[in-house]
Amino acid sequence: MIQPEDCALAKPVPRQERYHDLQSFDHANSAAGLLHRYARGRVKAIWLRLSVAAAGVVLLGVFVHWQAALIAMAVTVPAEIAEHLILNHHLRKGPGNFASRRTGRTIAVVSLVQAVGLGVCIAIAGLNGEVLRLTAWVFLIGATLNSLLVARYHPASHHARLAAFSLTACAILFLPGLAPGVPIANRAAEVVAVAVLFYMFRTLFQHLTRREQGVLNAERALIEGSEETRSVNAALKKAQSKLVEREKEARRLALVAQHANDSVVMLDHKARIIWANDKFSEITGYKFAEVEGRSIGAKLNGPLTDQTTVARLIAARNARESFTDYILNYRKDGSTVWMEINQTPLFDENGEFTLFISVERDATKMMEKQAQLQQALAEVKRADQEKSEFLSRMSHELRTPMNGVVGGLDILTDGADPAEFDRTLDILRVSSARMQTIVDDILSYSEISTGVLVARAGKSDLTKMLQTQVAEFRIVAAQKGLSGPKLTLPDSPVPKVWVDARLMRRMIDALLDNAIKFTDQGQIDLTLSCAQMHDGLQVRISVEDTGIGIHPDDQERVFEKFTQADGKNTRCFDGAGLGLSIAQEIAGSMGGKIALSSIPGQGSRFEVTLLLRPVRDAGPAGKTAFLNDPALTLLVAEDNRTNRLLISRMFKNARFRLEFAEDGEQAVEKYIELRPDVVLMDLSMPRKNGLDATRDIRKFEARGNLPECPILALTANAYASDRKDCFDVGMNDFLAKPVKKAALFDAVGQVLKLGVPRESGVP
Question: How do residues 456-502 score in pLDDT, each as one tens digit?
């Protein structure tokens, strides 16, 4: 059965309007019912008709003239809107309104007006040149075809339209023929063609009308078969019941998926999203409406998504296989999220593929922990490699000076002649100094690596410090035949400053050692310059050599640990490769910096710039005056016999009383007995260590309300943590073995002169 809603300019009738009884069937096919259905179909198709009219207007504007297009739009659009409003007005009155003859006549007039407007638009197109002539015929034939389709529903409207369209056809056919110069044969042929075409349409629709009537008769006969209808209805109800049960089950499953803690997405065979639960939106930020029908990969994948994983996922999807892995996706706001994806294909009862279900879980925290573990593992491997490199380098560097010490001792043991004696002592002195430098490098590197390198300021005389260091390094330079180091001081005296003398000496030692190491001929110069600033004293210390120099590409790299500018396996220079790195770290800990300028083959210049605070009260002079004070008593707690012998030799000319304790308990007992003026305390001793012995001494002093005796740590435990432990238990200063005599005298004289200061910074 052909209905107006089935034509090109209408929509299908909803399923619930099909007829299952004679009363509704007869009413729907009565004149009033047909007119009602006609009006409803025309109202529903208003936008489609306006779209077609708009297309015609655009064509007129493009190919004819915009004035013609505006005229056509002014005629067509109001006619369409007027018809729509009038038909809609009658529909609101209800189906009974369409039984009135007046309503039928009104609708016929409205149809005529609409057809005339459309005909005018088509005629304008057909009468303005050959370009749109064929297009005009297509529009006119389409409008006629549509009128024929709905002719059964309201013949009066059909006749009105047919009249208007016939006049339009005549205008297109005959009006151009009146113009001079138009071949009559061409127009005659066109008239014949149009007539034949309309005759064929009329014949076709007569045939379709008869077929439609046959279908209506068959449908009516089918409705009359009540028993058969009831059985069909029973079967339909049964099927509907099963469908309802399945829908309930589907709803239950949908509820489970909707409220799951994981993202659940349904995909078609092209991985397009057909359903997603709320968790998907919560994780990705996309609402379902934003991704429906879109490829899930196109929405969620991004620049950092692993393409290998994507390729394996696509391969599994094409093979209709399950897939499980982790993939990096992108949220709507551009942030990344790691997803654990489990994609499974579903098949129907016949084994045919239906869809994919992808269950995805936010695995960002897990992947971050995994990345942290991998980073930690890499750090461990790097630390292990660094440790191996460190041990290998230290093994080589320690063996070299140790060989000089052992060899020199062998020479002395064998009885060297006087001419060789001084030379052998120089070898021992240089080798021991080299060993001390390496040990200091190791300790400083340990402090830097653990982040506990802290400068502790004390009063220091830079002039005397540099003079002492230059004197020590002249022996080393002379061994290589070098001149210097030559010390250049400012013209005016340099005031004492607050600085960590231990770190300052360590930094200058590293720079002088580096200069001598990489210089084969020429000289070494050390220059001190000072400038008074508003916030302190700006100190510049430069070390300049005439050595091999450093290529510009290597000048930043030389400050890295374990690095030399000549970094080949077969190295020409000794060293742990820590000196410059340590010097830079020390300068940074003091708030300063080291600048490097170098010319390959001509030498290098390292300049340290520090801003130091000058000492306003210089204090009493004579740090070693205590050596001549017979009233003083110095107690040395040291379990090693060799170290006791060395200390006694250092103080062999002193006039004060020197006492020794061989362990911690003896140190406490002798302290209580002798009440010494100064105590040198080792840390690692039998029976009681130096820290516990110091605690006992401080407790004794507190119980007796006695003044605190200066206690100086003298130990091989030279880590920063050891220094902190010593000061925490009440010691006054810290000396790391091996210690030089001058440094020992300075430390003892300092604590006696300053009245037992804490953390003086004197090494």
Answer: 667 788 888 888 888 878 888 888 888 888 899 998 888 888 888 77
Cα(464)–Cα(501) distance, integer angstroms: 11
Residue 446, domain CATH: 1.10.287.130
| Integer angstrom CA distances of residue 422 from 244, 402, 430, 650 | 112, 19, 12, 20
Tell me how many domains the chain contains: 5
How distant is the alpha carbon of residue 537 from its chain centre? 45
Coil, strand, or helix at residue 311? helix
331 and 275 share a domain? Answer: yes
Q: Which two tokens stand for residue 711?
A: 């206690």
Tokens 């020390």 correspond to: 586
| Tokens at 195, concatenated | 């007539």
Burial 235-271 (b: 16+ CB within 10 A, else e): eeeeeeeeeeeeeeeeeeeeeebeeeebbbbbbeeeb
The β-bridge relationship of strands 657-661 and 633-637 is: parallel
Using CA atoms, how far residue 119 sits from 126, 130, 508, 752, in Å, is 10, 18, 105, 122
- Same domain as 271, residue 215: no
Place of tokens 């250092």: 650
Domain that holds residue 675: 625-753
- Residue 431: which of 463, 408, 414, 456 has the closest Cα? 408
Tens-place pLDDT, residues 590-624:
888 888 888 888 889 999 998 888 876 544 445 66
Residue 428 lies in a domain: yes
Distances (CA, A) of 257 to 247, 265, 321, 355, 663: 15, 9, 21, 15, 76
My answer on whether 29 and 158 are in the same domain is yes
The last residue of one of the domains, among 333, 362, 391, is 362
Residue 619 is assigned to a structural domain of this protein: no
Alpha carbons 595 and 469: distance in angstroms, whole number = 21
Helix (H) or strand (E) holding 134, with range, is: helix 133-149
Terminal alpha carbon distance of the chain: 112
Q: Give the contacts of 51 (CB within 8 A, at least 6 positions apart).
A: none
**285 burial class (0-12, 13-18, 19+ CB within 10 angstroms)?**
middle
To 5 degrees, how large is the angle CA 514–CA 516–CA 519? 105
pTM of the model: 0.37
